[in-house]
Amino acid sequence: MADWDRQNAATEQRYRALLAVSQAIASHRELATLFHELASQLVQVVRYDYLSLVLHDATSDLMRLHVLGSRQAVAPQPVIELNPKDDPAGQVWRTQQPLITANLAELKRWPQLLERVQPYGLESFCWLPLTTARRRLGALVFIAAQPAAYSPGELPFLQLVANQVAVAVENALAFEEIEGLRDKLAKEKAYLEEEVRTEHDFGDIVGENATLKAILKQVETVAPTDSAVLIHGETGTGKELIARAVHDLSPRSGRTFMKLNCAAIPTGLLESELFGHEKGAFTGAISQKIGRFELAHQGTLFLDEVGDIPLELQPKLLRVLQEQEFERLGGVKTIRVNVRLVAATNRDLREMIAEGQFRRDLYYRLNVFPICLPPLRERTDDIPRLVRHFTQLFARRMGRRIETIPTSVMKALVHYPWPGNVRELQNVIERAVILSPGPELQVPMSDLPPAEMPIEAEPAATGVTLTDAEREHILRALHSTNWVLGGPDGAAARLGMKRSTLHWKMKKLGISRPE
User: Is residue 193 one of the residues assigned to a domain?
Assistant: First the structure.
């Protein structure tokens, strides 16, 4: 009778200890702290020399082994990925049946495990399924140096321990997923708030030009689809504005419009910006980063200056366009997204393909529906309308009252070739509003080179076309820089355009350096 009382008291004490362990581990929401707490608490109810947790990753269909603790002082162990077919934990996860081995000889069926544990002098193993009412998580593993340390008679209690651990792990995983979503939403919210603060080319497409109207008709046609759109056009022609119009008229208009200027990001960081990275993926990666593709899920991603994407990164971009999946830099988990891509470029991608600088298959994937924006000099009938629009906008913002625009000023603005297109016109008008003290708009003539804008005579009277004026304008800049195209003092900088754009214009206008 006394033996029965002692046994009953020992059992009651063990269950009380398990209850205390359950209460201790239930409050931990982060996996790292939970793992630490499991190692310190479970030793009170189960004897072991090593404690491991093996969790199934549904994305990769691999088991991830975490060594939680040991009675010996050992260095922290890295997470090990296991094939479910090559490890007992995978068998326990699949069958939902516990497994006990009494000595190393019984591990010969799993040679990789045997090789891994032999140096530590371990003999006994007990694998227990980690399962909740909602899902199968993996296996809890108790390991001892003593042979036959675990018996089938202990399994009911050990499974109770595993069940408590499973609930705590599931809660921590759920909290981790919630925190990840919360972090993603916070980043998306911050991005959207920044977008609201940014002037999106003043929110409207201004113009009645026939070519522009035809482009807007194209936008209305392609917007309801999910097809990729490639917008061609010189710098400053409003490519982003057209991309936003595609998004706003699409079924995705209620979701994120994410943008990235590929030319503005250093080459080494562009992959991380597009696809994100895991903590420790490279020097300086102190935390996980969510990329633009992931943030744009269910929405639209606008890649400006897509011709500046490095050749070595183009296959990964092609894959995400074709398969809608990718991995973060330094990660193994495949992330699936649903993103509509709109790209823009001011470069000749066909010429880049011929020069081996751009992949042909990526070009075809991007160029499903091309839209070509005309430069401002080809829609001069819209210039007066744009001038009035920008004048009133900046005047209202600055608290000014601009009532009139002199005919000579408007004529000068219409006849100027605008190498920087609408963006250059916008900047000139903003400066003019600042410098206009009264109700009349005053444009500094230094902003508009006189040789390129016949004010007193119409182009028809002089026989000078806009193409002639632009050609002469570029030639003057080239002569003044001794035909140096790039650099801070080169012709491209003086003309307010990129070197690649200047090279394209020279080719188009038949300008070549004299022998």
Answer: no
Domain with 289, as residue range(s), is: 199-374
C-alpha angle with apex 457: 506 to 437, nearest 5 degrees?
90
Distance between CA atoms of 373 and 346, rounded to whole angstroms? 10
275 and 363 part of one domain? yes
pLDDT tens for the chain, 515 residues: list them.
Answer: 455 555 555 566 666 666 666 666 666 667 777 777 777 777 777 888 888 889 998 878 888 888 877 655 444 566 788 888 889 999 999 999 999 999 988 888 888 888 888 888 889 999 999 998 888 999 999 999 899 999 998 888 888 888 888 888 888 888 877 777 777 666 665 565 555 444 443 345 787 888 888 999 999 999 999 999 999 999 988 899 999 999 999 999 889 899 999 988 887 789 889 998 888 777 777 778 888 999 999 999 999 999 999 999 999 999 999 999 999 888 888 899 999 999 999 999 999 999 899 999 999 999 999 999 999 999 999 999 999 989 988 998 888 888 888 888 888 899 889 988 999 999 999 999 998 888 888 887 776 764 343 333 334 334 445 666 677 778 877 877 778 887 777 777 777 677 777 877 887 788 887 75
Q: Check whether residue 163 and residue 245 sit in a common domain.
A: no
Q: Going by C-beta distance under 8 Å and a sequence separation of 6 or more, which residues neighbour residue 463? A: none
Beta partners for 193? Answer: none
Identify whether residues 49 and 121 lie together within a single domain.
yes
Whether residue 409 is found in the same domain as residue 367: no
pTM of the model: 0.54
Q: Is residue 188 part of a domain?
A: no
Note whether 370 and 383 are same-domain residues: no
* The residue type at 323: E
Going by the DSSP 8-state scheme, the letter that residue 123 receives in this structure is -
489: three-class secondary structure by DSSP: coil
